[in-house]
């Protein structure tokens, strides 16, 4: 594993957008361990305090900072912003990024569900048409939604509930650390350019089975509560609501039930199971925490 691009000077430099996020954080750790110079992109760089990572101002709301953030980088990890103008923003970022720079985009599983001119395919096309060496990552739902306070953590730890509109569908939950491991390879190694990687965990689980595994981790019963999509998206508005509703529609259609072996093919180790993920994180779900 060496420099993605050889300009003959210094260490490999990678900009990780969303460095405080679910995939950005483990990715930064992996890159630092490889000796990479990591620019940790955040809309508030004062909150980035990761050993070996240089806090870097990067906001989708402030294009004036993009040139400085991408200056001299060999590769960029792009966490797609979940907003209507994401395709335009990503395209604009890439016009400011030297064409030798590798681009790895975090997209989502089965992005084609929306049709070729849907929002997710357009965000991908901004990358595939941008003139850079690129890799697209299309992961299933992250296991980290169970331990993130912005998603299900408090309902699981508080009321012992997993409210989720599934209508019997299964999901192949993936550990974000496995997405980061694939991203690390794509950012640093030869052989991943032009690849679209559909990434999943090792098994597709129903919501009741997921709740059973969460029960063991939480040390108390956790029950799956079936919701309608309208109930699940209550409290959201605008594009966020549309995207959230579409995502659950896709859950119902089985978009996230497909199990792939891509994590193992790319990284050489199998994707983590939900049980393994919970073994590492279970104190977070205990009612007392
Ligand atoms: N969660 C899932 O299950 C899942 C599944 C498949 C695909 N995805 C996709 O993965 C991506 C990440 O989703 P996530 O929910 O897991 O989020 P996340 O990566 O945990 O957090 C989002 C990141 O965006 C950054 N951010 C927020 N506002 C920003 C701005 N104005 N400019 C630049 N960066 C900003 C935040 O960092 P700062 O606050 O430090 O800027 C944060 O690190 C999304 O495109 C999502 O659709 C998610």
Sum up the structure in keywords.
Nucleoside-diphosphate sugar epimerase, two-stranded parallel sheet, alpha/beta, 35% helix, binds NADP nicotinamide-adenine-dinucleotide phosphate, 289 residues, globular, Ergot_Alk_Oxidoreductase, Rossmann fold, seven-stranded parallel sheet, 11 strands, NAD(P)-bd_dom_sf
What can you tell me about this protein's structure?
The chain is α/β, with parallel strands linked by helices and 289 residues long. Helices cover 35% and strands 16% of the residues. It has helices at residues 24-33, 66-70, 86-95, 119-128, 153-159, 176-188, 207-218, 229-233, 238-253, 262-267, 274-281; strands at 13-16, 37-42, 53-57, 75-79, 102-106, 134-139, 161-163, 170-171, 195-199, 205-206, 223-225. The protein has a 7-stranded parallel sheet, with helices on both faces. The chain has a two-stranded parallel sheet with strand order 7-11. β1, α1 and β2 form a beta-alpha-beta unit. The termini are far apart. NADP nicotinamide-adenine-dinucleotide phosphate binds next to loops. InterPro entries: Ergot_Alk_Oxidoreductase, NAD(P)-bd_dom_sf. It comes from Micromonospora rosaria. This is Nucleoside-diphosphate sugar epimerase.
Topology:
Layout: E1 13-16, H1 24-33, E2 37-42, E3 53-57, H2 66-70, E4 75-79, H3 86-95, E5 102-106, H4 119-128, E6 134-139, H5 153-159, E7 161-163, E8 170-171, H6 176-188, E9 195-199, E10 205-206, H7 207-218, E11 223-225, H8 229-233, H9 238-253, H10 262-267, H11 274-281
Helix pairs in contact: 1-6, 3-4, 7-11
The structure holds NADP nicotinamide-adenine-dinucleotide phosphate (NAP).
